[in-house]
């Protein structure tokens, strides 16, 4: 698996003094920070961002932070969002958390509260990157199988014996063993149980079983 990019904190805050104070604090602790003065400015940059988190002021000029969150969700934006608000209410908290926010910090917040929220959100995003990379790698392994190997793969994880697979596919048992070995090598697993778990993650439909949910 390739190395993850260095995380960046994306601060969307219209108050220049607060934007400067927060960014200075985070940079002093070796965090990369990018700043935006409006929702529109961040929305334009969002499709090209890497690993990190968003610090988003709820009350922004133009589109509010809540409207921006909705737009980001619609475009499939995965980076965790930590809302900052000077007028937090229970309905607002429920609204943004239901929409997927990682946290909501009422102003004024302490330096430690901010840092804890940032580090927690970055950890969540790092886990997401790792999960997506693992899913992509698994899909690429499956797609590298030949059509015949895919047929053998499905029957192996369904629990068929080699001789049964051979009869069903009208090939020799030795050929089944060769395909089976190559499949295990490509998936880098040692047991059928591991191969079954791979099938579950891929959402492969197994004869006699319901289809699994894809990752």
Which secondary structure elements does this structure contain, and how are they paired or packed?
Blueprint: E1 8-12, H1 16-28, E2 32-36, H2 39-45, E3 52-57, H3 65-74, E4 81-85, H4 90-98, E5 103-106, H5 111-143, H6 147-157, H7 162-169, H8 173-187, H9 192-202
Parallel strand pairs: 1-2, 1-3, 3-4, 4-5
Please give a structural write-up:
InterPro entries: CheY-like_superfamily, Sig_transdc_resp-reg_C-effctor, Sig_transdc_resp-reg_receiver, Tscrpt_reg_LuxR_C, WH-like_DNA-bd_sf. Residues 138-203 form the HTH luxR-type domain. One of its GO terms (molecular function) is DNA binding. Keywords: DNA-binding, Phosphoprotein, Transcription, Transcription regulation. With 215 residues, the chain is of the alpha/beta class. It has two domains: 8-133, Rossmann fold (3-Layer(aba) Sandwich), CATH 3.40.50.2300; 144-202, Winged helix-like DNA-binding domain superfamily/Winged helix DNA-binding domain (Arc Repressor Mutant, subunit A). The chain has nine helices and five strands, in the order E-H-E-H-E-H-E-H-E-H-H-H-H-H. It has helices at 16-28, 39-45, 65-74, 90-98, 111-143, 147-157, 162-169, 173-187, 192-202, and strands at residues 8-12, 32-36, 52-57, 81-85, 103-106. A five-stranded parallel β-sheet has the order 2-1-3-4-5, with helices on both faces. It is elongated and about 75 Å long. The two termini are 17 Å apart. 24% of the residues are buried. Residues 210-215 have low confidence and may be disordered.
């Amino acid at each position: 698996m390739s190395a993850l990019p260095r995380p960046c904190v994306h601060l969307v805050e219209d108050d220049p003094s607060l934007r400067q104070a927060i960014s200075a604090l985070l940079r002093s602790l070796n965090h990369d920070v990018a700043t935006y003065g409006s929702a529109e400015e961040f929305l334009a940059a969002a499709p090209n961002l890497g690993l990190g988190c968003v610090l988003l002021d709820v009350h922004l000029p133009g589109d509010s932070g809540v409207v921006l969150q909705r737009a980001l969700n619609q475009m499939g934006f995965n980076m965790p969002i930590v809302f900052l608000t000077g007028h937090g209410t229970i309905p607002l908290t429920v609204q943004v958390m239901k929409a997927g926010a990682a946290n909501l910090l009422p102003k004024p917040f302490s330096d430690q509260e901010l840092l804890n929220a940032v580090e927690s959100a970055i950890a969540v995003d790092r886990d997401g990157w790792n999960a997506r990379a693992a899913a992509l790698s698994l899909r690429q392994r499956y797609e590298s199988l030949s059509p015949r190997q895919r047929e053998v793969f499905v029957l192996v994880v369904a629990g068929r014996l080699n001789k049964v697979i051979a009869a069903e596919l009208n090939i020799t048992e030795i050929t089944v063993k060769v395909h089976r070995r190559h499949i295990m090598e490509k998936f880098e697993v040692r047991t059928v149980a591991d191969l079954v778990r791979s099938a579950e993650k891929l959402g492969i439909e197994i004869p006699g079983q319901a289809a699994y949910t894809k990752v």
